[in-house]
Amino acid sequence: MGKRFKFQNLEKIPDLTLVSIVKRKRDFEIIKKEKWYRIPVKNAPKEIAQIKYLAFYFPKIFGKRKWQILYYGKVKNIEVRKRIDLLPKEKDNPNALEDYYKITIKNLIRLKNPVVSKKGRRIIFIITTLEKLLNSKEINDLFITSPIEEKLYSELKKNNIPCERQYFVKEGNDFYSLDFAIFGKKGKIAIECDGEKYHLTKKAVFYDRERDNRLTSSGWWVLRFYSKDIKKSPERCVKLIKKTIKRIS
């Protein structure tokens, strides 16, 4: 895959939604009582100015409620404040003087159907839509990706093949985002969906080869499918994926 969301004009999505991790229980108490949450400016997604809804992902610290999205709210206001102004009792925090987005919501709404992470991923941010949030069963349903990725994801679900989308892997000092990751008892598979326009350029071919080599040396099976393969013969792609799954099961 090329640059993140390169193929999407997110500014035109009317119900653009940000899913953000809630790292501490006391932060959720602020969300419930004061209806605002903070995100470091230096780490925030570039689409933050366009978001209309904010949803909250609970990590392991939330016990029985971990690894799921249970609540969201409509954004009322976004402003930049110093952390120390938002949390004056934490003046000794090393980030006290850093800039943070203070995102105020109009209300806190509980989802009728929680969106869960079956693998228990530590997800920091996901850009999605309100429609996806309200209709998704699991985290992997939320991602806004290219048409060919959506097509392959649909085929994987149709064939009951569990996978993780937009899965980050660290190799040395580099992070790679895998379009799809599949895990087995004896190994793991990285699946990439490549658009010919970008991935057949000289620069992209060199980058993809280096990346594939590093992933392979770390135990990944790497499968690449061009858009024409997914569009014309999705069943052949799935057949090859199933064959590889047998090798790692």
Automatic annotation (TrEMBL):
Domain Restriction endonuclease type II-like intervals: 149-245
Gene3D superfamilies, per the entry: VSR Endonuclease (3.40.960.10)
InterPro entries: Restrct_endonuc-II-like, Restrct_endonuc-II-like_dom
SUPFAM superfamilies noted in UniProt: Restriction endonuclease-like (SSF52980)
Protein known as: DUF559 domain-containing protein
Organism for this UniProt entry: candidate division WOR-3 bacterium
Lineage: Bacteria, Bacteria division WOR-3
